[in-house]
Design brief:
The chain has helices at about 55-60, 65-70, 95-100, 120-125, 135-150, 155-165, 190-200, 215-225, 230-235, 255-260, 280-290, 330-345; strands spanning about 5-10, 15-20, 25-30, 40, 65, 80-85, 105-110, 125-130, 185, 205-210, 225, 240-245, 270, 295, 315-320. The strands form three sheets. A seven-stranded parallel beta sheet has the order 11-10-9-12-13-14-15, with helices on both faces. About 30% of the residues lie in helices and about 20% in strands. Helix 5 packs across helix 7 (about 190-200). By secondary structure, the chain is an alpha/beta fold. The chain contains twelve helices and 15 strands.
Length: about 350
């Protein structure tokens, strides 16, 4: 029961939405009662919970209670109409859903919904939403940041500046690589992939992409990307490979030993999708044996990696604790979009970001 917010019933809701641009949602709530609808949430500021400093984004719309209070007031379950999921650790099973007879929607913060059993949730007549648009730009920014940090040894340079001996020179060992005029391979050309490609254009990179289906020619021309129907062909051509696919049964370990062996020995793998898309054991072996040169990971499994994990001991790896959307602006927009999705569903409207499977 971690990482969720639950919204209670409401007598009358009118939702006004203005979408000025992707990632900007303004909402207003009007109710015939003075009492705000109830919200059950993991206490603000705890792990897998909304930050305390941003609690007003929820409290402006809802009366907030935590799980300890709900345990002493079980009657509130009858009023619950929505669940807001913050973080990927929430486990919603059949017995949980059966205990919420008036549930209308499960609202996820972020684009990935692999942690939710959507067919099960839908079988109870409950909708599922996510926040796809607001995450695209910051995630694409981080992909480029990881590429630059890995290629130019930025983290090693910072460590040298802090810890060097008097008179010591940075030396040949920290020579980096260019990304300008190199070849970028994008695995998964969705909205984030297109934004990565746009950013890569600024570095005059040659861009290839692999996708389940080819994008329209006009989209390819806009982002300067060329379709590559065979994944291993893309891997063999690319100096940098950015992985951006959703996690599904088909994409689990999409990048394994065979795919890593197809890459250039000088290549860098950048994963900002989901940890299980890459076979981590195979990746450790590839890095240790110099099958590829480097990796930069925003996602792993588990998250964060336990201390002592082999990836954390490798000097040619950057590992982040899933920070793709971890900016103040994006976090605020995600919460606002979650609120908008919940209010729309409670008003009987189609939520702006319903997930259909």
């Amino acid at each position: 029961m971690q990482g969720i917010v639950v919204v209670s019933g409401i007598t009358c809701i009118r939702l006004i939405q203005r979408l000025k641009n992707p990632g900007h949602i303004a909402t207003r709530l009007y109710s015939t009662t003075m009492e705000k609808p109830y919200v059950l949430t993991r206490k603000f500021g705890r792990p897998e919970a909304i930050y305390s400093s941003l609690s007003s984004l929820v409290e402006d719309h809802f009366t907030v209670i935590d799980f300890e209070k709900m345990a002493s007031q079980p009657e509130v379950k009858q009023k619950i109409q929505a669940i807001l999921v913050w973080g990927g650790s929430t486990y919603i099973n059949s017995s949980f859903l059966q205990g919420l007879p008036n549930l209308k929607v499960v609202v996820n913060g972020g684009v990935g919904v692999d942690h939710l059993d959507i067919p099960l949730i839908n079988s109870f007549g409950v909708k599922v939403t996510n926040t796809p648009d607001v995450v695209c730009k910051p995630t694409a920014d981080l992909a480029m940041g990881l590429m630059l940090a890995s290629a130019r040894n930025i983290i090693q340079g910072d460590s040298f500046s802090r810890d060097h001996e008097e008179g010591e020179d940075i030396g040949e060992i920290h020579l980096g690589k260019d990304i300008s005029n190199k070849t970028l391979g994008i695995v998964g050309m969705g909205n984030i992939g297109k934004m990565v490609a746009k950013r890569a254009q600024g570095f005059d990179m040659k861009i290839y992409y692999h996708n389940r289906t080819r994008r329209p020619v006009e989209e390819e021309q806009t982002v300067g990307a060329e379709y590559c129907p065979v994944l291993n062909d893309l891997l063999a051509m690319s100096d940098y490979v950015v992985v951006l696919v959703n996690l599904t049964a088909a994409s689990t370990h999409l990048i394994g030993r065979e795919q890593l062996s197809a890459m250039k020995s000088s290549a860098t793998l950048i994963n900002i999708s989901r940890g299980k898309v890459v076979d981590q054991e195979a990746l450790v072996e590839a890095l240790q044996n110099k099958v590829i040169q480097a990796a930069a990971l925003d996602v792993t499994y588990p998250e964060p990696l336990p201390r002592g994990h082999p990836l954390l001991s490798l000097p040619n790896v950057i590992v982040l604790p899933h920070m793709g959307t971890h900016t103040l602006e994006t976090t605020c927009l995600m919460i606002k979009q979650m609120v908008a999705n919940a209010l729309a569903a409670l008003a009987g409207d189609t939520p702006p970001n319903e997930v259909i499977v």
